[in-house]
Write a structure and sequence with these properties.
- The chain is an alpha+beta fold and 175 residues long.
- The chain has one domain: NADH Oxidase (3-Layer(aba) Sandwich).
- The longest helix is centred in the middle third of the chain and has 18 residues.
- The protein is globular and about 55 Å long.
Length: 175
C-alpha cells in the first residue's frame, strides 16, 4: 500500500468487530513501533501489549467509559518516564507508525488519551518511576467512518514567514 493512501484512508475507529488479530500481524505492528524514529535514537518508551479481554474490559471505566475499547482485540499502552524531554513527540511518532501499519493490514485503531493515570498504572503494574502516556485500541473495524472535514491548506501552511500564502495545485482542499 502507498503511504499517502494509508494517511488519507486511516480513521479513528470506535466500532470494532471482535476478531483475534493473528500473531504475525501483531508482530508486524510491533516492529513498526520499534522502527519509529526518536530524538537522539533514545527510544524512551515501552509498550504493554494487552490481549487479555478481562484486562481490556477493566480498562473501560479507567478510560472514561469509552465502551468501544471493550470490543478491541488488542490495547497498546505506551509507557514512559514522565517529564523526559521529547518523550511525547517520540511516542506520537511511534503510535502513528502503528496506526498506519494497522490500516495497511486491514485493522482499525483509535488513540486513547483520556484515562485515570493512577488507575491505569495500577491495573497494568507499571513501576512507580514510569507512567502510561497514551493508549491505542486495535481491532477489525465494524464500520468505517466517512472522512471528516479538514482545514484548508491556506489555513495551515505559511511559506517562508508566517502569514505568507502560496497557491499550489498539489495542496488540495480534500477532506
Amino acid at each position: 500500500m502507498d503511504v499517502m493512501n494509508a494517511i488519507r484512508g486511516r480513521r479513528s475507529i470506535r466500532k470494532f468487530q471482535y476478531k483475534e488479530i493473528p500473531a504475525k500481524v501483531l508482530e508486524e505492528l510491533l516492529e513498526a513501533a520499534r522502527l519509529a524514529p526518536s530524538a537522539g535514537n533514545r527510544q524512551a518508551w515501552e509498550l504493554i501489549v494487552i490481549t487479555d479481554q478481562n484486562i481490556i474490559s477493566n480498562l473501560v471505566p479507567i478510560c472514561k467509559n469509552q465502551q468501544f475499547i471493550n470490543d478491541s482485540s488488542v490495547f497498546l499502552a505506551a509507557v514512559t518516564v514522565p517529564g523526559q524531554r521529547w518523550t511525547m513527540t517520540d511516542l506520537t511518532i511511534m503510535i502513528d507508525h502503528v496506526t498506519l501499519a494497522a490500516y495497511e493490514k486491514g485493522l482499525g485503531s483509535c488513540w486513547i488519551g483520556a484515562f485515570d493515570q493512577d488507575a491505569i498504572n495500577q491495573l497494568l503494574g507499571v513501576p512507580e518511576d514510569r507512567s502510561v502516556a497514551i493508549g491505542l485500541a486495535l481491532g477489525y473495524p465494524a464500520e468505517y467512518p466517512s472522512p471528516r472535514s479538514r482545514k484548508s491548506p491556506q489555513e495551515l501552511f505559511h511559506w517562508n514567514k508566517y502569514g505568507q500564502q502560496k497557491q499550489s495545485p498539489i495542496l488540495r482542499n480534500d477532506p
